[in-house]
Amino acid sequence: MNFAPRLDAFAIDRTSRLPLHDQLYERIHAAIRDGRLAPGARLPSTRSLSIQLGVARGTIDGVYARLAGEGRLIARRPGGTIVSPNFRSPPDTPTVPTPQPSSEPWLPLQLGLPALDLFPRKTWTRILARQARQLPIDEMVAPDPMGLLALREAIAAYLAVSRGIACGAHQIVVTHGYQDALNLTVDLVLAMGDTVWIEDPGYGFVQRTLRARSMTIAAAPVDEEGLDVDWARAKAPQAKLAIVTPAHQFPLGVTLSPARRRALLAWAAADRWILEDDYDCEFHYSGHKPAALKTMDVDQRVFYAGSFSKSLLPSLRLGYLVLPPHLVDAARTAQQLRHRGVAMFEQSAVAELMRQGHFARHLRRMAVGYKARRDALVGALERRFGDRIVLTHRAGGLHVLGRFPGLGDDFELARRAARVGLKPAPLSGQYLTPGADQGLLLSFTNVPEDRADQVVASLARAIA
After folding, report:
1. What pLDDT, in 10s, does the model give residues 132-141?
2. Within a 13 Å sphere around the CA of 80, how many CA atoms are in the beta-carbon half?
3. What is the pTM for the complete model shown?
4. Strand partners for 35
5. DSSP per residue over 324-371, as a string?
6. Domains (ranges, CATH) in the chain?
7. Quick check: 401 and 441 in contact, CB under 8 A?
8. Is 139 helix (H, G, I), strand (E, B) or coil?
9. What is residue 44's three-state secondary structure?
């Protein structure tokens, strides 16, 4: 039986100089170690404990996730969080965090994840329950291979307002995330062996996917203006497709300049194609948000890919692709042969989230939270490392880039960080060319402001 623990296992001292996150972590850790929290004991929900202790729910989420990463807790939905039945810790076990197994959901500084503590759980749960009760008969059969019409209409309306993209719902196909959008684009416009321009450095998954599809890769260098179109035209003039991240280039964060945009579109006008990955366009914190390349696409040569992985949850596996109008029929045929569409229930719930305005409010809340988290992490890094770090942080995006001159190879630095439960990514690992730049990509999305100093202190002890 999972007996609820006494509240004194979670007591915190408001007069202590130790941050609340660390206090709560130490209290629960000690209670597990000395048996006050027995194996299998169920912990209070984060909402309940937040109310009882007067502590932000995100702080408690972070503590629970940290202890789960060490194997001390297990999150069981809907059964709540329990002490791991198989975990045994000797009395003298040090409290230094151990590396989190790869099967765990996240680690501080890890790329590719939204702020899990900012997800609107209550609203989402309510919409899911209502959708389950009211699921119409026509949504119980095989889905439309192009996606639920209500969701495609909601996406078209959202893109018109947020990105200035004028498209009809018929041009949108709902995908299983960016991976699916990339594969559909390749199916529609490429043949085996065709050459594709990609950014260098860039998203490694794109490289692996194209190689698996037997495509020829031309890795074009990226500078402060984005992908070097002149270099690509000179070195790989036979290319049929360019894959770019124009708003916030991954991983350098630069924006594709107006001159490069015009050059890229002029190149594509001659029976070539562009796939625009606008993966984090919602998150821009100062100045004007960079426009989507698609808004300049008068010749209809741009595929525009978006995803709910960064704005909602990666586990939804939901994204979308805006198609050039003359490829809509071909895409419908391809979808019927590929996987016959995406699960209707999740599509219906996201459509309702967008229709009721919750999605837009959630994005505004995330943007405010991310700016605060970025500023806190940057401040902590500057205080802790001083002139031993060269920081690059742009006006938008989901990570900062830290270079550590003289401290060693970035792969080795990342390995050292992993040993204390952190997961920055080495910059050189994003390059295809030899002699790559060195540094660590540090995501701030899941590092609340009150944890920034503690996370950076752990990073400094690991790599300095």
Report:
1. 888 777 666 7
2. 15
3. 0.76
4. none
5. PGGGHHHHHHHHHHHTS---HHHHHHHHHHHHTTHHHHHHHHHHHHHH
6. 7-95 (1.10.10.10), 122-359 (3.40.640.10), 371-463 (3.90.1150.10)
7. yes
8. helix
9. coil
